[in-house]
Design brief:
The complex is a heterodimer of chains A (524) and B (193). By secondary structure, chain A is an alpha+beta fold. Chain A has twelve helices and 23 strands. In chain A, the strands form six sheets. Chain A has a six-stranded mixed sheet with strand order 4-8-7-10-6-11, sandwiched between helices. In chain A, helix 2 packs across helix 3 (69-80). The radius of gyration of chain A is 28 Å and the shape is elongated. Chain B has 193 residues and is mainly beta. Chain B has one domain: Immunoglobulin-like (Sandwich). Chain B has a six-stranded antiparallel sheet with strand order 1-4-7-11-10-9, with no helix packed on it. Chain B starts with a helix and ends with a strand. Classes of the chains: A alpha+beta (524), B mainly beta (193). At the A-B interface, helix 9 of A face strand 10 of B.
Chain lengths: 524, 193
C-alpha cells in the first residue's frame, strides 16, 4: 500500500461497500444525486424453505387432489401463519374462519363435502381442514379449466379462495401468496417441475417514493401554511396488525386514521397512503418538547401531525424483534424522506410514536433497534456520524476518545445522541476530543461538526483534521457561540483508507468553553 | 371491597337479567354454567356505591380482540354501557374521567361532547374492524340522552387501541364489570351523584 489517494468512482464504490457493512444486504446506498434505491431486501426464500407443523398434510392433500402442496402451504401461511384458528363471527354477514386454511361459510361446507369429511371435522381437525381446502381448489381448477402445470394460473384460484370481493384486495392477496411461494419455488415440483412463477410484478410509482405502491387514503388534510407546518420529524409506528389488514383499514374513510407510509412485515412492499406534503392522521399528541430533549420548544402545543411524516410498520410493539429486511426497507425509505425534506438524521428527528405520546402509546415498542436503525438510515444516505458517546456509535466505523477531564452534560438542548462533552480552554493545553472514522478505501469526504451554542463558548474553536497516516490536513476554526444543534461544514478532503480523525483542540485563551458533540462524514 | 364466591354468582345472574332485555337468547344456559369474571372486585348490587377513580386492567401481548357490539340502556338507578367482543375474553381496558379536550387518535381533532363529565373507555389490544378493513360496529356515535349516559362517541380505532368516550351531564360514580363467553366489559353509570 503506497498511501496514495485513489479518487473517483472506484473509491466511491469502495465507500459504498463500507456502508454496506453497516446496512448489510444494502447493495447500493446511493449518493445524494440519486434517489434511494429500491430496498435491497433479502428475499424470503419461500415457505418450502421452512418446516411447518402440517407439511405431511399439505403433501398428502396436494397429491390426493392434484393441487400443488406448496400452494396449500403458502395459502395457509398467508391466512393463518400455520395456526389452527377457531373463528368467531366478527360481525353480522361474515362467517367465522376455521382451521389452518381459514375456511369459512359456504366454502367450508363445500370443501368438506368434496373431501368427504363431516363439517365439524373440517373445522377442528387440521388434516381434514387442509383436505377440504385442497378439494375446493381442485374444484375451482376444474371449473375454470386452468392448466395445472402453469403456476400463474393458480394465483387467480387463490384469489377466489380468499373470498375477497375488492379487486385491489384480490390482487394484494395473490401477491402475498406468490411472495410466500418464494422467488424460485413453483407451486409444487410435482405440478410444475419446469416453470416457476415469475416474481410478483414490481409495483411502484408512488408519488414521493417510487419503489412504494400508491394506495391513496382519504384520511388527510392540509398542513398549516405557516412554519409549524414544515415537515421536519419522522415518526415510527407499528400498526398492531398485518400489512394487508393495516392498509385496508387506513384506506377506509370510516377509520379516520392514516399514515404517510406503511412497510410490510418482510419489507418487500411499502405502501404510500398520503402525500408527504399533506397532513396524515397518525398521532394524537400535541407536541411536548420535554419529551424530545427540549428540542424545538417553539412548537410546544402544536398538533404533532402538522409537522411529521408517519411511517407505519406491519407488526406489533410487543414483538421481540423485527425482521432485518423490514428494517432495511424502512431505513431506505426514511433516508429518502429525510433527504427530500431536509430532515436531520438524528435523535430529535426520527422518533417513536410512543416517545411523543407516552400517555397511551408505546409503539414501535422496546425492541425496535434504534441505534442500528438510525445508523442504517445514515448509511443509506451515505453518511457516518461519530458521537461523543460510544452508545451512539458503530465501533466498526466510528470511535470517539474524549479526555476524562471533559465533563459530560445534556444541559443545553439540540445535541446529537444523548448529550455532549465540554471543557474550559487553557493556553498551554495539549489535549483534545478525538472523533475517529474508518474508511475501507480512500476517497473524498465532506466533514461537518456539531456543538451546542452559548455565550461562554469559544468563537474560534479549533478542529484539526488528520488523515489516517497521521498528517494534518487542515485546522479549521468555528464559532461555537452560535449555530448549536446544526451541522457546520469544516470542509472536504481526500482521506486515505483506515482511521482518519477530527480533533477538537482545548488550547485557546483561558476563560472559554469548547463543546465536543459530534462529527459527521459524508459522501458528496 | 371483596367479592365472594356467591357474589360472583349474583353478578352472573344480574348481568344475565340485564342483558336479556338487550340480547335475546343471551342467557340460554343456566347462570352457573357460565364463567363470569368480575374485575376489579366491586359492589355488584343494583344500588352500588361506585367510584370516580380510574379502573385499569392490562392484558398485553395478545392478538387484538374484535369489538363487535356497543349498547347503552337505562336501568333503575344507573345507565349501563356494554362493550361486547368476539371470542371468549375481553382485552385490557382503562376507564377514567378525562379533562377536555378529547382528541381523535389519528387526526388529533377535538371531539365535542355535551355536559361536563367525559368518561374515556380505552381497550387494548383491540380493534373494531376486520382483516379486510371493514368496521365491525356500524354505529360510531349516538345520543342516548339518558340520565347519566347522555352521549357516546368513538374516538379511536388505530394501532390496536379502541377508545370510546361517554358524555355525562356531570361526573358520576361508576363501576366496571366483566363477563366471559361472550366477552363483555360493562360500565354502569349511577344516576345520582
Amino acid at each position: 500500500m503506497t498511501g496514495e489517494l485513489r479518487m473517483g468512482g472506484g473509491s466511491t464504490a469502495a465507500f459504498v461497500a463500507t456502508l454496506a457493512g453497516i446496512a448489510s444486504g444494502c447493495r447500493a446506498p446511493s449518493v445524494s444525486t440519486e434517489p434511494c434505491p429500491q430496498p435491497g431486501v433479502a428475499r424470503f426464500a419461500g415457505v418450502d424453505s421452512i418446516a411447518s407443523p402440517y407439511d405431511s398434510a399439505f403433501a398428502a392433500a396436494g397429491a390426493e387432489f392434484g393441487v400443488p402442496a406448496s400452494l396449500l402451504k403458502a395459502i395457509a401461511w398467508v391466512e393463518t401463519r400455520w395456526q389452527m384458528v377457531q373463528g368467531a363471527e366478527e360481525f353480522p354477514g361474515r362467517e367465522p374462519a376455521f382451521g389452518v386454511m381459514a375456511l369459512r361459510g359456504a366454502a367450508l361446507e363445500r370443501g368438506a363435502e368434496l373431501a368427504g369429511v363431516p363439517l365439524e371435522r373440517a373445522r377442528r381437525d387440521p388434516v381434514s381442514n387442509i383436505r377440504a381446502a385442497a378439494a375446493l381448489l381442485d374444484a375451482y381448477a376444474t371449473e375454470t379449466r386452468v392448466d395445472r402445470s402453469r403456476p400463474e394460473q393458480w394465483g387467480t384460484l387463490a384469489a377466489r379462495f380468499s373470498g375477497i370481493e375488492l379487486p385491489e384486495g384480490r390482487t394484494a392477496y395473490t401477491r402475498e401468496v406468490y411472495r410466500a411461494l418464494g422467488p424460485r419455488a413453483g407451486p409444487s415440483a410435482a405440478a410444475a417441475p419446469a416453470s416457476c412463477p415469475k416474481p410478483p410484478p414490481v409495483f411502484g410509482g408512488a408519488p414521493d417514493y417510487s419503489p412504494a405502491v400508491w394506495r391513496a387514503s382519504p384520511n388527510f388534510n392540509q398542513r398549516p401554511a405557516d412554519s409549524t407546518g414544515v415537515t421536519h420529524v419522522v415518526i415510527i409506528h407499528t400498526c398492531e396488525s398485518n400489512y394487508t389488514s393495516c392498509w385496508s383499514w387506513l384506506l377506509n374513510p370510516a377509520s379516520q386514521v392514516s399514515a404517510h407510509y406503511l412497510v410490510s412485515e418482510d419489507g418487500g412492499e411499502i405502501s404510500q397512503l398520503v402525500l408527504e406534503r399533506d397532513r396524515a392522521w397518525h398521532i394524537a399528541a400535541l407536541y411536548d418538547c420535554a419529551l424530545n430533549h427540549e428540542h424545538d420548544c417553539w412548537l410546544e402545543g402544536v398538533q404533532s401531525n402538522d409537522f411529521t411524516v408517519g411511517i407505519e410498520h406491519a407488526g406489533f410493539a410487543s414483538q421481540d424483534s423485527f425482521p432485518t429486511s423490514q428494517l432495511q426497507a424502512s431505513a431506505a425509505l426514511v433516508c429518502d424522506v429525510t433527504r427530500d425534506r431536509g430532515i436531520p438524521r438524528d435523535w430529535q428527528h426520527i422518533l417513536a410514536h410512543g416517545q411523543l405520546q407516552p400517555r397511551n402509546r408505546i409503539d414501535p415498542g422496546p425492541h425496535w433497534p434504534w441505534v442500528a436503525y438510525v445508523h442504517q438510515v445514515q448509511a443509506r444516505c451515505g453518511e457516518v456520524v461519530v458521537d461523543d458517546s460510544a452508545q451512539f456509535n458503530d465501533p466498526a466505523f466510528a470511535v470517539a476518545a474524549i479526555p476524562a477531564a471533559w465533563p459530560a452534560t445534556a444541559a443545553t438542548p439540540d445535541y446529537y445522541g444523548g448529550g455532549y462533552r465540554w471543557v474550559a480552554t487553557l493556553p498551554d493545553a495539549t489535549d483534545g476530543a478525538v472523533f475517529s472514522f474508518r474508511l475501507d478505501a480512500a476517497g473524498p469526504r465532506a466533514v461537518d461538526a456539531r456543538w451546542t451554542s452559548g455565550a461562554n463558548r469559544s468563537p474560534r474553536a479549533a478542529y484539526a483534521v488528520i488523515g489516517a497516516a497521521g498528517d494534518t490536513l487542515a485546522i479549521v476554526r468555528q464559532d461555537q457561540t452560535t449555530g448549536g444543534g446544526r451541522w457546520h461544514a469544516l470542509g472536504t478532503w481526500a482521506f486515505p483508507a483506515g482511521w482518519s480523525r477530527v480533533v477538537l483542540l482545548r488550547r485557546d485563551a483561558a476563560g472559554l468553553v469548547v463543546v465536543a458533540d459530534a462529527v459527521r462524514v459524508r459522501q458528496q | 371491597m371483596e367479592v365472594h364466591a356467591n357474589g360472583v354468582a349474583v353478578t352472573v345472574r344480574m348481568i344475565c337479567l340485564d342483558l336479556v332485555l338487550l340480547l335475546s337468547g343471551a342467557c340460554g344456559r343456566p347462570a352457573g354454567a357460565r364463567t363470569a369474571v368480575v374485575v376489579p372486585p366491586q359492589d355488584t348490587s343494583a344500588a352500588f356505591a361506585g367510584s370516580m377513580n380510574a379502573v385499569r386492567r392490562a392484558r398485553p401481548g395478545r392478538r387484538p380482540a374484535i369489538l363487535r357490539a356497543v349498547r347503552v340502556a337505562p336501568h333503575a338507578a344507573y345507565d349501563r354501557v356494554v362493550f361486547e367482543f368476539a371470542g371468549d375474553s375481553a382485552p385490557g381496558y382503562e376507564v377514567e374521567y378525562a379533562d377536555r379536550p378529547i382528541r381523535r387518535c389519528g387526526s388529533g381533532d377535538t371531539v365535542s361532547l355535551m355536559g361536563t363529565g367525559y368518561l374515556v373507555v380505552r381497550f387494548e389490544p383491540a380493534q373494531m374492524h376486520d382483516e379486510r378493513g371493514n368496521p365491525t360496529v356500524a354505529r360510531r356515535e349516538w345520543t342516548p340522552r339518558l340520565r347519566a349516559a347522555n352521549e357516546i362517541k368513538l374516538v379511536c380505532d388505530f394501532e390496536g387501541q379502541v377508545e370510546w368516550v361517554l358524555g355525562l351531564p356531570a361526573r358520576r360514580r361508576y363501576r366496571v364489570l366483566e363477563t366471559a363467553a361472550p366477552a363483555r366489559v360493562i360500565i354502569d353509570l349511577r344516576h345520582e351523584p
